[in-house]
């Protein structure tokens, strides 16, 4: 484990931010159609994934696939920087607390991942609300002209800072299992690859304490599977968060601007589990798997380029 110097923290922040921006840009079109379907936008509520993407281009233009991505980039760099760096810090604190016991490796990753996810969400949540509002808009029916206009309008007309944090409780409830499982699964799969399949999944690296680092295809595979597992457990909270964030976009959806529990109940009563709490799940697998794969892979590669350790020491014999 690297010593937690200022240089290490700075490089981790850079690596995390780059990883987040690459991952989110990769899946930005799927992010937008997911938001439109989750919140039942009147123009796209009867579409599927591919028909929705085609209709966005036909109704608006090809660049509309990336609507809201500017706000996303403003949000994602500090979010991903904070999440990955916090994970390293929390993991080090936990390891110092109960030692680097093999039996506690998974628990350490899960707890550090959950805490890192909550930390990052708390610091950047208003930008996520703004990004969702901008992505939900359809050309010709704009309410907000940009990031600053959206922030000031929401703040002044919907209840101040509380409005920018609408849906935060649902996000935290979803983030704890999502981030915890993401980091847990990735770290565990990374460890298993290095221990049992090093000849197929790893290459030597002198800078690494274990002498090995995962090859890029193995990184992508581990990250993709981690994303799939994590999203399966946390998705209903993601739907609830979006409905709450977008509740004030029209009169008929303001009923979703209640508390998290009430909104969950309303979604369930109105649309059920599959078409309500898990609405858009097929898109989410399509976006979450490559997003998490690119995110973890880019983070590991960038750390290597910056001279940071990305491996796990493997005991043999």
What is the terminal separation in angstroms? 21 Å
Helix content: over 70%
The DSSP helix count reads 13
Strand content: under 5%
Low-pLDDT sequence parts? 313-317
Number of strands: 2
Approximate shape: globular
Going across the major beta sheet, what is the strand order? Answer: 1-2
Main beta-sheet strand count, sense and barrel state:
2 strands, antiparallel
**Content-based structural category:** mainly alpha
| Order of H and E elements | HHHHHHHHHEEHHHH
Q: Give the mean pLDDT.
A: 89
Computed Rg: 20 Å
Describe this structure in words.
With 317 residues, the protein is mainly α. The protein has helices spanning 6-26, 28-38, 49-59, 69-98, 105-136, 147-157, 161-164, 168-196, 198-201, 216-245, 260-271, 273-277, 281-305, and strands at 202-204, 212-214. A hairpin with a 7-residue loop joins strand 1 and strand 2. Helix 10 (216-245) packs across helix 11 and helix 10 crosses helix 13 (281-305). The radius of gyration is 20 Å and the shape is globular.
Summarize the SSE layout with pairings.
Layout: H1 6-26, H2 28-38, H3 49-59, H4 69-98, H5 105-136, H6 147-157, H7 161-164, H8 168-196, H9 198-201, E1 202-204, E2 212-214, H10 216-245, H11 260-271, H12 273-277, H13 281-305
Antiparallel strand pairs: 1-2
Quick tags:
single chain; 317 residues; mainly alpha; two-stranded antiparallel ribbon; transport; repeat
Quick recap:
It contains 13 helices and two strands.
